[in-house]
C-alpha cells in the first residue's frame, strides 16, 4: 500500500516509540494532520491552547518521563509561538523534537503568506540540529537524526516539512549516489574515567573532614551512590533547583535548595566546608559556593564542555554520574569524625522548625508559605510537582519536603513565566497514574494557566488518576518582581506594572466542571488540600494570599536589605504591611525554636 510523507512521518515516530505529539493545527501541517485522521495511535495528537503551551507540555513530558518530547506547529505564527518553550528545553537541557510546517516549496522565497525564514528563526534555539525535508527520501534520515541528536545533546532539535512535501508519495532512500539511508535507535556508552583520575579525585575528597556535596539534575539516577558517599565521608548534600528530586529531604544530611531560592543550612555548609564535590550540576552562582581558595574540589559531569567552570575544581571527571560514583567509591575512605555531619544535621533540624514557624506567621489573609507547608506533609509519595516562575518558585524550593519517588521541576534556567500548568499536563501524559500538582502565581495563571485549564478539561477523563491540582497564589501582584525591584533596585512598587486585575479563578474552574475552592482563611488550607487530593477530577485552589511577605533568601545581603528599606521609604504603597510582615517572618529565624 502506498503511503505519503505525512503517513510515513507518523509511522516513523511510532517506530521511535513516540506516544504523544503536543501541538496545534494550521495549514502548514495540514498534510500531516490528514495522515493522522487515518493513522492508529500512537502517536496521539494532544492539542494545547497555544503552541508555546504545546512546547512546554513536551518539555514537561520529557522532564518527567526521561524520554524525548515531541511538539508540532504550523509554519509562520505557529513556529514563532513554539519558541519560548523550546528555549526552556534548550536552557534546561531537555530533549525535544519540534516538527514544523512551511509554505509549499513553490512559494518559498516569495514572501508568501505565513512564510518565515525558519532556518534563521530556529538557528539558535535548535542549534544542534534543524533541517528542512524537501524530498521524501530525505525524511527518515532527517527525523532520525533529529531524535538522536535531541537525546545525545539533551537539546531541542527541529525538522521543517513544507506543506506540499507532506502530501508527496513517500519513497525510501535508494542504494544510490546522493541518497542517505537511515536507521532507528541509539545506544549510548557508559563513560567512566580511568583509575588514575579516580584515585586523584578520591585523594582530594579524602583530604578533608568537612565535605559538602552539590547535586543537580545530572545526578538523578545516582541516588544510592550519593547516599553511600555522603554516609562514608560524613558529608551534607545540597540540591540545585533542578535536582530537588534527586535526593529526598527526609535524609538527615540533605540541606535542601541552594542559591537565591536556597536554605540557610546549604549556605552555611558551603561557607564552612573544606572539600566540595559537584555532581551533575551547572549551578551558576559561585557566590553561594565556598570561597575560591577555601575548598579542594572535584566535579563529575557527563559533558566535558560544561565541567570545571563553576568552581576552581582540582579534578574534573567526565562521565555518567552513577557509573563514575560507583567506580570512585572503592577509593573513598571512611571518615570517622562525625563533628561536621552532626553540625549539619542540627542546622537542618532547626531550619525545618524555622520554616514551619515562618509558614505559620499570620498574614492578610493567607501566608503563601503555609500553602506549601500544609501541602508538604500531605504529599503522596508518587506526586509530581511543577512550580511557575514567581514567588511560588521560592516556596517550592524552600518549603516542600520531598519524600519517596516524588518528582518536581520548573523552568530552572530560562526562568520563564507560564510553564507551571503545561508542565503538569505533560506530567499527566507521562504518568497518567500519578497525581500532578502545579503551584502557580496569578500572573502566570492569567498569562497561560487559565487557557490551559481547557486542555485539562479535554483530556482528564482519560487519565487513570484524574488528579491534577492547580494551586493559584492569588495576590493580585507580580510579586517576585515587586520584591526584586525593592531589594535590588531600591525602587518602590510601581502599581501600573505590578498590580494585577482581580480574577475569580475558582469560578472559572467550576465552569469547566472541576472541583474548585476559594481559600481566604489559613485554617482551611489543610482540609482544602485533603479534599483536592481525594477528588475524582482536577481541582483549582484559589488561595488569596498576602503579597507582603518577602521571598527574601535566608542570607539576604545587607545591600539588599538596605535597598528594600530605601524602596519602602520612597513611598511604597504597601510599606506598612511589608514592614510588619517582613519583620514577623524574619524574626522566626531568631526565636528559640531554632
Ligand atoms: C515570560 C516572562 N515574563 C516576565 C518575567 C519576569 N517575571 C518573573 S516572576 C514575575 C512575576 C510573576 O507573578 P505571578 O505569576 O503573579 O507570581 P507571584 O510572584 O506574584 O507569586 C515576572 C513578571 C518572566 N520571568 N517570564
Question: Could you walk me through the main structural features you see in this protein, from its secondary elements to its overall organization?
Answer:
Helix 13 packs across helix 20 (525-534). It contains 22 helices and 18 strands. The radius of gyration is 25 Å and the shape is globular. It has helices at 5-15, 30-38, 51-65, 77-92, 118-122, 139-153, 163-166, 195-207, 223-233, 264-272, 321-328, 339-360, 368-378, 391-399, 420-430, 442-459, 479-489, 495-498, 505-511, 525-534, 558-569, 575-587, and strands spanning 20-23, 44-47, 69-73, 96-102, 130-132, 156-162, 211-215, 236-239, 254-257, 275-279, 296-301, 315-318, 384-387, 407-409, 436-441, 468-474, 515-519, 539-544. The longest helix is centred in the middle third of the chain and has 22 residues, at 339-360. It is 41% helix and 15% strand. The chain has a six-stranded parallel beta sheet with strand order 2-1-3-4-6-5, with helices on both faces. Thiamine diphosphate binds next to helix 14, helix 16 and helix 17.
